[in-house]
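Hey all, quick one. A colleague (J.T.) asked me to put the pyridoxal-5'-phosphate job into the tracker so the inputs and the structure tokens live in one place instead of scattered across chat threads. No bug as far as I know, just bookkeeping. Sequence used:
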Amino acid sequence: MELNLPSSKDKVLFTPGPLTTSLSVKQAMLRDAGSWHFEFNALVLEIREKLLRIAGLSREKGYEAILMQGTGTFGVESVIGSIVPSDGKILILSNGAYGARMLQMAGHLKIHSEAFHSAEDQTPDLDRLRQVLQADSSITHVAAVHCETTTGILNPVHEIGAVVREAGRIYIVDAMSSFGAIPIDFERAGIHYLISSANKCLEGVPGFSFVLCLRSALMSSEGHARSLSLDLLGQLRGFEKNKQFRYTPPTHSILAFDQALAEFFQEGGVEARGARYAANHRVLLEGMFRLGFRSYLPPSVQSYIITSFIFPTDERFQFPEFYRRLSDRGYIIYPGKISQADTFRIGSIGRVFESDMRDLTHAIADVLHDMEITL
Ligand SMILES: *Cc1c(COP(=O)(O)O)cnc(C)c1O
């Protein structure tokens, strides 16, 4: 595998993370930072405060931002494994792979759980959710995925939150692929815990995830953690004790993230980033529809984060070949993950612009022509 230096041109990633980052974000990593050093620790504190600010929250309002080493999955597992008591039960709303992964986590951690399934192209039925919560008082926690990256479907986290709040349960949202680009009103949605990661819409590099949570909720989870390294309250206590990660910090990804946040605010925050991604998505759809592709989801539930396209029926279409030819031209797309349909996915997030989306659809047109595929 050929790895390019940051000064040369990398292939453009149309993936849901890790994604294309700016040259300046990559360059911010060309330093070594001591994990005990006061400057680094001050930076970590600053980043935690900026994350709260992006969410419209603050310490004064009773919220905390906790960074957790590892990928997004580690962050989700740290929440689920740290807050559900041994006599508690978590209801997991699932209409894709990330909901399914939370169920798998609960299984591994031997946490009592129940699945609330919806079809992959449908958002959860809120009346049915209300009934399930009313009928089962043993459910203490409810978890949902905001943008289910499996398909690109956008689940109504505020409306789900209203039902959860009415039922008086703790609400967890996996906002991995939406935070920073799709507005989330924490208080209106009644979110107790939200998880996202450095390398999605905030356009940092992989290395850590973060959890935004209501401090009082986390404090009452004392003693529930099933893991030492993923103990969420333990991690917060570590930061509060000496401003440090408990174990080796992802120093380079923190440096990159600091730069990514500067660029995020410079761009205009959640609204501007969301607008850029929405424009990317629009250009992508126009180009793909013009070529004759169909998207998997109905437009009413489709997010502007990532889009699933249905395979052409022409038997000359072979995804690995299609993928390789696009890669040769400098464009990296993503395979599908849906169980009921053959699809591939194209993300609209990361340091990509309308012109990149246009270039991609032109490259797709060329590849279809070369492969003699008709749509
Ligand atoms: C990316 C993503 C995750 C985490 O995936 P990792 O590969 O562990 O970073 C979790 N949930 C959603 C919705 C995601 O898009």
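Adding what we noticed when we looked at it: The first strand starts at residue 12 and ends at 13. Residues 16-17, 71-73, 98, 145, 149, 174, 176-177, 197 surround pyridoxal-5'-phosphate (CB under 6 Å).
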